[in-house]
Amino acid sequence: LLDKHNNDFTKSVLEYSETQAPQAKALVRIxxxxxxxxxxxxxxxxxxxxxxxxxxxxxxNIFTPxxxxxxxxxxxxxxxxxxxxxxxxxxQLAIIGAGxxxxxxxxxxGFLKLVLQx
Length: 118
Prior knowledge:
By secondary structure, the protein is mainly α. It is built from four helices and no strands. Helix content is 78%, strand content 0%. The N and C termini lie far apart (80 Å).
């Protein structure tokens, strides 16, 4: 950047700050999500780690490892990790929701079948 701006440190720093701002924002968001205080914080830290490990083991071609492992991979930016984990969470919740919905439907029809037989 210094070469690009003819060794003008101020312009170089401003451009660097502008280009890195989305990464800093993503890192702060990820950090806050991981560092919530209290019991809720413990739950919101552990539940995604457990869900990520289960889904990644079952469907490694669809889901990614947990966020801590993703942050250690140099090929991903903080914004990419945040976006990917949001996408994973939507997929995980969709699968869980479909499974629960299916169980409710089966239970409902099973109950109706029992009631109608009597």
